[in-house]
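step 4 of 6: structure.
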Amino acid sequence: MNVLNAVFVAPFLDMADSPAFFFEVVIGGMMTGVMYSLVALGFVLIFKASSVFNFAQGVFALFAAMTLVGLMTGTVPFALDKALPGMPAFVAIVLTGVVMVGLAFLVERVVLRPMVNQDHIIMFMSTIGIAFVLEGFGDLMWGSDVKLLDIGIPTGSFFFLDMMIQVFDLWAAGIAGVLVLSLAVFFQKTRTGRALRAVADDHQAALSVGIPLKSIWVIVWSVAGIVALVAGIMWGSKSGVQFSLSLIALRALPVLILGGFTSVPGAIVGGLIIGVGEKVAEVYWGPLVNGAIENWFAYVLALVFLLFRPQGLFGEKIIERV
Amino acid sequence: MIYRETGQFKPTYQSDSAVFPIAQDRWVVIAFVAFLAVVVPFFGSEYLFQAILVPVLIYSIAAIGLNLLTGYCGQLSLGTGGFMAVGAVACYKFSTAFPEMNLVVVLLLSGVVTAGVGLIFGVPSLRIKGFYLAVATLAAQFFLNWLFNKIAWFQNYTPSGTLTMPPREVFGVLVTSAAAQPHHRYLFCLAMVVILALAATNIVRGPVGRAWMAIRDMDIAAELIGFRPFQTKLLAFSVSSFYVGIAGALALALWLGSVETAEAFDINQSFQVLFMVIIGGLGSMLGSFIGAAFIVLMPIVLTNVMVYGLGFEAVTAKHFEFIFFGGLIIFFLIVEPHGIARLWQIAKEKLRLWPFPH
C-alpha cells in the first residue's frame, strides 16, 4: 500500500501542492528538451536524405565545439604549446562552419561514395568508425582537456510568476527556434531544399529526374554539420567542451525514436516530451529509487510510445510488402 | 591444388550434412583446436594467456551470441554489454550464495538467467524493427547497468560496489581468483568455447536456424509461409542472451576476477561486440572468432607498435589508436562489407583452382 501510495499518489499531491515549482520543473525540462532536439535534428536530416543512421552526430558536435574553442583561443592545431592571437567569436563560428562543410565533403568522398547501396547496418557501423576517427583526430588536434566555451550568451536567472527561469535556456530555445525556422524555409522555399525533399522521398526517382545525388549528400551532411555546430555551441557553453559532449548523441536517440527517424517536427516534439518527462520523473519519482534514472528513463518512455506507434510519433508509416 | 574435394564422395545423408563436409576443413579445424589445447599451454606466457587468448575466447562466445541474433535472425541489438553484465552478476550471486555449486553449473545458470532477461527485452522486437529496435535495446543496456549499480543486493552489499569472484575449482583444479594458473583458466575457456560453438553451429544448421534466417531475410514472407515470428524472434533473443550471459560470467570469473559492472560492461562493450560480428562476418561462425581476435588484438598491436616501436607518448598513442581503429573499420567495411569470413571464403575458392584458374 505504501509503495502504491508513493508511486501513484504522493508525487501528484506534490505537484498540486506547489504548482509554481511543478511548472518550473516542466519549463526546465522543455529547455533541456530543446537542446536534445538540436542533436536529434542532425540525425533526422541525414537519415531522411541518405537513410544513414549517423552515429557520429554527437562527435560532430564535439568536434565543432573543439574547433570553435581552438580558433577563439588561438590554439595551433597539433602544436598545443604554441599560441596565436585568438579571433572574435563571430569569425570563429563562420570558420568552424567552413570546417564542418569540409568535413561533409570528406565523409561523402571517403566513406559514403564507396559504400553506396550497402546494407543499413553496414553504413551505421561505418559512421561509428567515423566517430572513432574524428574523436581521436579532434583530441590530437586540439588537446583532450576540458575547455571553456564562451561566445557571449548571457547567463543568470530571473523570476517570472514565482518560477525561476535561466536566461541561457531562453537563449537556447530562441536559437533552436531560429535554426528550425531557417531549416524549414530552406527545405520548403529553395530549389536545393526541394531537391533534398525529393531525394528523401525516393532516391531512384530523384536520380531519374536528374537530381545529382552526390552533391545532395554533401549538402545534407554540411547542414547536419552546421546543426552539430549549433548543438556543440549550446551544450559546450553549458557544460564545457569535453569528451562527454559526444555522449549527448546517446541522450538524443530516444528523442529520435519517439519522434520518428524521418520527421523534423518529430525531433522537436520528441525532444520536448523527453525533456519534460525526464525532468518530471527525476524530480518526483527519482527519489523513490535513489535517483540517477535519467540515463534510462528516456529510453523506456520512448519504448512505451513505440509500442503504440512503431514508427515513432511522426515517422512515415511503415508499409511492408512481400 | 592445395584445396580440393575431388574424390571425397558422400554416400550417406549423414556425411552430406556434416559440419565440415570436406576432409581438409575437418582436419585443419581439429588440428588447430588440438594445437590450442595441447601445445599452447606448454609454451604460452602469462601475458599471452591473460591479455590475449582468454579475452579472445570469451569475446568469441559473446560474438557468437550476438551473431545468432543479428547475423542469423536479423535483429540488431545494442544491449550486449547489459546482457554481459547480467551474466556476470548472476555468476557472482550464484557462486557466493551456493559455494558448493560446480562452476560449470553456475555458468550455465547465469546463461539461463540472462536468457530470461533477454527474453523480456526481446518482446519489443515483435512490434519494432530495424534501427528503432536497435535504439530500444539500448534501453536494456542503460537500465540494467543502472539497476546493478543502484541495488546493493546485486553486489552483496559490498561498500565498493565491485563484484569479486571467489576461488572455485573445476575437477579439482583452481580456475578462478588470482591464485589460479593462467593456463588452467585458458583451458577451461577453450573447453567452453568448443562446446558452445559446436552447439551454436548445430542450432543454426537445424530447423531453428532456418526459421531465424527466414525471419532475417524477410519477416513478412516468413510469417506467411508459416514461421511464427513471435516464438522465433524471442527464441533468438533468449539463445543469443544465453551465450552473451555466459561470456559475461566468464569475463568476471576467469578473466577480470573483479569488476564494477557499470564500467566493465558499458555501452562500448556493446559496440565492441557488434564490431566483432560485423568485421568478422554477419551470419558466420568462423567470422565470430575472426572478429573477436581482430578486435581484441588490434588495440594491443597498435599500442605496442606506437609506444614501444615508434616511441610515441602513451596519450598521443591512444589518440592515434582511435584514429586507426576507426579508419580500419571503415576500410574493412568498404573493402568487404560481408566481413573477413567472406574474404577467407573467396580465398578458399581461389585455392581450389590455383594454379590453373581456367
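step 5 of 6: annotate
 - Chain B is about 70% helix and 0% strand.
 - The longest strand of chain B covers residues 163-164.
step 6 of 6: archive
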